Amino acid sequence: MVGLHRIGGFGAGLLALVLASCAVVSASSQARAQAHPLQERPKPMTEPDANPVSNPIAVPGFWDPRRRPERPDLSRISVIRFLTETDYPPFNYAGTDGAPAGFNVDLARMICEEIKVPCTVQMRRFDTLINALNVNQGDAIIASLAATPAMRLRVDFSDPYYRTPARFVARRDSPVKDVRPQALEARKIGVVAGTAHEAYIKTLYTEAELHAYPNAADARAALKNGEVDLLFGDGISLAFWLNGTDSAKCCEFRGGPYMESQYFGEGVGIAVKHGNDLLRQAFNWALFRLWEKGRFTDLWLRYFPISPF
Description:
By secondary structure, the chain is an alpha/beta fold. It has eleven helices and twelve strands. Helix 3 packs across helix 10.
């Protein structure tokens, strides 16, 4: 798995939760109207905004309606062979019948419907995906592959279709509402050691009391047990924890989301071989169309009833 980077971190134990989440009814048109594209607009830390809790049904979007991508000549695309990960729920996993399932798989099929071409989805080990693409065993990778500078040396990427924001979580009975740095002086903040989240808190929350834990489970237990006032971490995995039984409904998001790319990455796109501009442009066009029609919003809310954004 050397050199490959995914966004977020989940275990197979979340599969039952994923399947339950998929039963959530799609959002109404009113909910879609409230789900605006999220743009990266870093704010000065002294800005008077109290950093309020974000909309619980917010949906990520990176498509500006004023910058509609051009429709490429799709007649030259006859089939798309997608490659994906074998065990990364809720994005990629084997369904009860053994067939590929998950958010990325559903999105791939929606893209093919929009482009109006047949497609296949093949599951492979994550560490084999790039080589399989480059020896023409597939046309595109849709597997939560982070578009890092190092990865761009190996493949080209479509526009991003999601990112993992950082979020603060507090116990529901916590009096902490304002999570700006000046408001958290002497507050205890839990993080997972060695992560970008730890680096962010060390850099910007210098007056807070940092508590680093070896893994996410220990950090979450510390929050539940009152050892820390806040937990700062991966918004997507935290959303699943909040919606699952392990949290016992102890906690909720406060403030955010935080999406500074220098800490939390440029996002996830669909990977294609270097120079395959036709397929990359086709994906950009199809992703925009799916977002514009509200289908991307419906898909997101089906998998993420508690939004990480």
